[in-house]
Amino acid sequence: MRLGFGLPQTGQAAGPDAVTKVARRAEQLGFNSLWVFDRLLYPVKPQVPYPAGDGSLPELYKKVLDPVETLTFVAARTDHIFIGTSVLNLPWYNPVLLARRLTTVDILSGGRLRVGFGIGWSPDEYEAAGVPWKARGSRADESLRALKAIWTMDPVEIEGAGFKVPKSYFGLKPVQKPHPPIYMAAFTPAAMRRAAREAAGWFPVGVPLPAVGPMFGTIKTMVKEAGRDPESFELLVRGNLDITKSPVSKDRAAFMGTLEQIAEDIHSTRKLGAAELVLDVQFSPDVKTEEDIINRMEDLRKIAD
User: What pLDDT was estimated at residue 47?
Assistant: First the structure.
């Protein structure tokens, strides 16, 4: 199982020095990949609760570096570690412009980009992005078609909501062929079918580990129904860690507790057949500085072996 690590993209530590130091140390420690997420704003009175914990928004979401720009910065400061989005909220973006941005990152990184897509959960962010909340599924489908066309074809002629490409050449193509691997977060049946049809793997966030296995089995069945090879379809798991000094016994969520308890969760994820586990310590209350993040990274590298 590959190991990935979340970059210090949010909160007190977010900035060029921390991002650089964490990225380089992760590469030294043998992590396979570095990841960023996509948060646009922190509404004072959110229309819907946060889909985790007690429904309150994490304070960290008040300050979040842009995901694609952060990966571009990291690509210039590392040599071989993979970099990825976990996940970009695809319907927010014009797919023609996004194709160019992601292609540029793949080229400048020497073919190290992995792309995780989702459709988000916050109507407030959709309003800010100028995209209808109820159109998020159809927008995601249109964007995937446009991205794949631009990445693999020349000339391209394609149209969707908010964009129209006359028959045109896009000579800028990704290093990776046919394109960077696409992973998708998916929880509803429609989103799961989209992942089965379009992605190289499923990338759940916040799904209880006991539920991951059955859901992954369902998606692999959908992959087969879509005429694709289910054995090549990967499972990637993101663990947002809440590290405690004392063991958590009551109602313990996955990746919450002492390092020993989190080691059990890492083992459970491996037993599920996950191809990769991404560990993010930014959500742990006692992690505030870049030194805290690096210390936790080193601890996790030891217990994951």
Answer: 97
